[in-house]
Input
Amino acid sequence: MTEWHPTSWQQKPARQQATYPSPEALDATLQQLSLLPPLVTSWEIESLKSQLAAASRGEAFLLQGGDCAEHFADCNSQIVTNKLKILLQMSLLLIHGLNKPVIRVGRIAGQYAKPRSADTETVEGVTLPSYRGDLINGPEFTAEARTPDPVRLLRGYGRAAMTLNFIRALSDCGFADLHHPENWDLDFMHHSPLGEEYQKVVSDLAHSLKFMETLGSARNQELNRIQFFTSHEGLHLHYEQSLTRQVPNRSGYYNLTTHLPWIGFRTATTTDAHVEYFSGIENPVGVKVGPGMSQQWIQELVERLNPRNEAGKLLFIHRFGAQRIGEELPGLIEAVQRTGQQVLWVSDPMHGNTESTRNGYKTRRFDNILGELEQAIAIHRDCGSVLGGVHFELTGDDVTECIGGARGLDEEGLKRAYKTQVDPRLNYEQALEMAMAITRRLGGDDR
Ligand code: PEP
Ligand code: CO
Output
């Protein structure tokens, strides 16, 4: 066995990687990336890890969400702010309903690479490489757009840095002040059937804050700012490698592109390159767990990805679909329990519930999403395990991509604002409704 190094994954089979026409051009770009400043710091990563450890014990709750794929063109003020707003609003509902701290993690500032089911796409007899996300190539069906271009890696780094810069500025000023959650209102709140319930929670929280501040004499500075972490699928291993570094006064290597990278379901084979790369970094790491994963496989993942049994280090993000979770999840929970490790279990009720409508839209039904989540809660409870978080594909915008929810969006309605180029996302209203549903099922009396 060779020793781990940021490049040791290159000795293993790597799935879902792009083929660049010029390996020299790729190398030159990676060289440039390796000299640029990190996007996140080891302090932030370690802080997140200890918070995730609390979530694995049921003392905190993880809310992870954002786009299926970010696009370079969406790196603008409104889209970033709206995403932040919906995640902040959901987190308020969860804090209030679950009565515990909520760890906010966006699929943001780097979610630019996508796994695809086929390497190529054929349209009217023309075959081109599949679109793999803006980090790699363009979605337009032309040979030029679809050819992987390493310059996109630099552009992706730049977009991630700009997004993160804006998020950091917003998180540390008046915008994030818990005394003024009206800053997070999205336009729709004023005419939404859910508006009233949300406003009630906000006013409850305002009262609690006032009460706390009356007891303690000073205003708590911590309440004027929020913590917000980033995550993305660590799919493009060359990109991840170029920002994987040692830092002063700590041992080991950190992936400094993001706080929480995860391994997609399609690349979670233990003998392959992704697990090799992820086995050597100090960040907390997620693994998507889906249909067909065996007990032995999940135990090997535990062994490879968290050999020191570090708290908060390993997240299993399960996504079976409402139909299959009941038969698949209990055995895997028991298999992990037999390893003696405490991992953080997270439900992604999106990726196992994708379907196509008769009119050709890729969609997900609100009822199936909620159905999987409800089953996840019940199964963990029955197994004596903790469901410590949720993972959603959502947007702060008014899109029509998932069917159902309070407004009863139907198949016909999908076409009004169907914008995703990859997976369908919950819109702002459906996302908020989902947060309310979670608090009803996980919070308060029914615990
Ligand atoms: C995703 O999270 O967008 C994704 C592709 O998920 P999975 O690896 O679970 O299919
Ligand atoms: Co997706």
